[in-house]
């Protein structure tokens, strides 16, 4: 990232949308020395600043993507910090929170330090790191929570793996509580989901594919909620995908437990029928569920039961996707399309723009203790200028990610990012 102070930058005639304060008005915003210096309807043009006429388009806090796979170290053929950050910038994402399932995994302070230095040298957006919850992501022995926090980790997760042992999870929660650290957990019983290629149900049977039941998700989530009640730890379910999970999280929140959850933009806007004739770009983990589950997720987002919308960014190379459906690897890219896909819900009237942006920016910042997510004086100048109405057909080949495995290839979308700013520097369009 660039470190020198950029020239002051002012956005004029913008629709200022700030989920943190509830602001939604036409006005201006001035950036000076990498932070927001002035914002509101009464801000006058500053002669010394570069000026951008927004023509009524939305100016919002930059998005924070919680839990994206960025490739480095060990999987640079799938993605790198540089390519992931370029894709993020094109999608209005100003902060990536990277998964720990790299090679080697992020289970030691020196690996956190390496990623921090590597991101500083090669990334154009902010990169923060999820540290491994257990050593080697093996679910047997917890990592050094305090040392990893000191090194710069923002939360703890075993990435796409679930900790099977309730004893290990309880111990990890107890230590995390003492450090006020957030645990981000993949909620799926590996044994119950083993061998499954898509959502278990009638469609899987008709396609002749083994299924992954919703119960695999609900069982682990229910266990974890009980452990939260026992320990008092802050807990975030990375990806919930079904109505049963929504009900469990809603119940935990009614009891006042520090439980939150996230959902991917793909699970909010697609369902198992999109698999169609064995289309492997729709093979995700967790899998796309039934339409009634998708609707339950959308309603839970609108109601505030679901806290975070993320990309579920999981790049795969062509060879691992160009296989029979049951043999293809799980995963899809999503950091560049997260906002445009989510705007489908706004245009359909299912979710308000402010609520969507809250889940993509403000709430992740709150959960992780990051300073972004708001349009306020003194906040980091991490911003996205968005044309909500711009229609386009997605061309996977034009995406900035190194891999191109998107389920939205040739999809008709509405809403594009016009400009992305990180610490006052314009990172998209690229210089």
Automatic annotation (TrEMBL):
Tell me any Pfam family this protein matches: Amidohydro_3
Concerning SUPFAM superfamilies, the annotation shows: Composite domain of metallo-dependent hydrolases, Metallo-dependent hydrolases
Record-listed E.C. numbers: 3.5.2.3
Q: Which UniProt keywords apply?
A: Hydrolase, Pyrimidine biosynthesis, Zinc
* GO MF annotations, alphabetized: dihydroorotase activity
Q: Which residues form the Dihydroorotase catalytic domain?
A: 56-241
Where in the numbering of this chain does the Amidohydrolase domain appear?
349-428
PANTHER family this protein is in? ALLANTOINASE
Please state what the protein is called.
Answer: Dihydroorotase
